[in-house]
Amino acid sequence: MARTVCAKSMLLVSLLVCCFIGLTAVKYDPNWNSIDSRPLPSWYDEAKIGIFIHWGVFSVPAFGSEWFWWNWQGIKNPDHVKFMADNYKPGFTYAEFAPKFTGELFNATHWADVFNSSGARYVVLTSKHHEGFTLWPSNVSWNWNAMDVGPHKDLVGELAGPVRNRGMKFGLYHSLFEWFHPLYLADKSSKWATKHFVKSKTMPELYEIVNAYRPDIIWSDGEWEAPDTYWNSTDFLAWLYNESPVKDTVVTNDRWGKDTLCKHGGYYTCVDRYNPGILQNHKWENCMTLDKSSWGYNRRSNLTNYLTIHETLTVLASTVSCGGNLLINVGPTADGLILPIFEERLRELGQWLKVNGEAIYSSEPWTHQNDTYTPDIWYTSKVTADGSRHVYAIVLHWPLNNQLHLASVTPQSEMSVNMLGHAAALEWKPRPRGGVVVAMPALSPRDMPSQHAWVLKFQHPA
């Protein structure tokens, strides 16, 4: 009898606690003051590195960029018009590219393995770009989706599982607008007085992908023509944060209307390839491409178009030092292959992070972002369990005579210096004009912990 009473009492307490939590849970209203008050889920800032994938019908012509359709028929770029006239029959339409977007060599497991090998902690796939073609079987995109034409597969669903099975978060890019959709063009002609496109296309798609795939990130785009009030952005975000199946963990960006960029949202993207070089007061992301000229696969790219691993590490160091995340884009081919040069860069990045990831993941900006004396030195930091702080100096160029001058580090009597991946402590001495001089170790190339950048760890610095 006593056990029964005890069990009932515990049940009552549990119900009261649940009711109290429910009553005190934050409810976000559909306005920016409320939406912007939501704390950013901590996993995102800790992750630091993600992979962006631009894949769609634009991967078939693979000429210029993922904006091929707009360049060809929107602004009638002469190069694009000539390309079509020289290679395709008169009257050929963009829709005729879709059956050639076959994805027959797409292997979601291999993709996930490549992305995981890079050290990335999240992946963002273009569920729909500005062409309007959806990579999932959308209920509001009849015959213009990957199930009805082309691969005849749910590409979003196929990739989500393998990505998550490897411990990475899975996010979805989604374009609010579509270049040539008649309902969008009609709303545009009305100067946004009507919302036919939003009600019948954009919002149904967003609710659909959230409920079907439970993305960890909604990476919105295509916001620049219309105000957020046209898109009903705050209504959607309030639902996303209050009621959706990912309400507690989902992360969003700032592209929700022409006046929201770099002002509203979970984290800021501001402009493509945004890398301010100074510390920002709001969480931000540098979305950038390994192919300097294009987000989608571009057959015209040559070797000089691709970032080297040193260039990639330079962007990573400057981004993370200033409080940003790095979202690194690859553009697969229409048949579903990741180019070997993309794979090589990602695997090189992963090898570097195996040695030096301590300075990147879950790091925080330090007092200084880059050194005030020696160029190409970027700093990050971490607070340890005992409350002390470790500072990391990412050295992008090995110093002459093995003597590294750092003006931003104040010498402390008990300070120790190590190179990540190298066991022995490094000698250092105060610098006459302030700072320290670190003696870099004399290592043969095969003994180098890294080949392209090196990280010094300062314990107990000022």
Could you explain the architecture of this structure?
The structure is a single chain. This protein folds into 2 domains: 328 residues, Glycosidases (TIM Barrel); 83 residues, Golgi alpha-mannosidase II (Immunoglobulin-like, Sandwich). It is built from 13 helices and 14 strands. Helix 4 packs across helix 5, helix 6 packs across helix 7 and helix 6 crosses helix 13. It is globular and about 70 Å long.
At a glance:
The protein is α/β, with parallel strands linked by helices. The protein has 13 helices and 14 strands.
List the keywords.
four-stranded antiparallel beta sheet; 14 strands; 2 domains; seven-stranded parallel beta sheet; hydrolase; alpha/beta; FUC_metazoa-typ; 462 residues; TIM Barrel; single chain
What is the first-to-last residue Cα distance? 63 Å
Q: How are the strands of the largest sheet arranged?
A: 5-4-3-2-1-7-6
At the fold tier of CATH, the topology name of the largest domain is TIM Barrel
Question: So, the CATH homologous superfamily of the largest domain?
Answer: Glycosidases
Provide a count of the helices: 13
Q: Write down the secondary-structure element order.
A: HHHEHHHEHEHHEHHEEHEHEEEEEEE
- CATH classification class of the largest domain: Alpha Beta
- Uncertain residue segments: 1-24
What does the overall shape look like? globular
Name the helicity range: 25-40%
CATH architecture of the largest domain: Alpha-Beta Barrel
The biggest sheet, with number of strands, parallel, antiparallel or mixed sense and barrel status, is: 7 strands, parallel
Q: Specify the structural class.
A: alpha/beta
Q: Mean pLDDT, rounded to whole units?
A: 94
SS elements, strand count: 14
Radius of gyration: 25 Å
Count the domains.
2
The amount of beta strand, in percent, is 15-25%
Domain Glycoside hydrolase family 29 N-terminal: 25-358
Pfam family, one: Alpha_L_fucos
Protein name: alpha-L-fucosidase
Function: Alpha-L-fucosidase is responsible for hydrolyzing the alpha-1,6-linked fucose joined to the reducing-end N-acetylglucosamine of the carbohydrate moieties of glycoproteins.
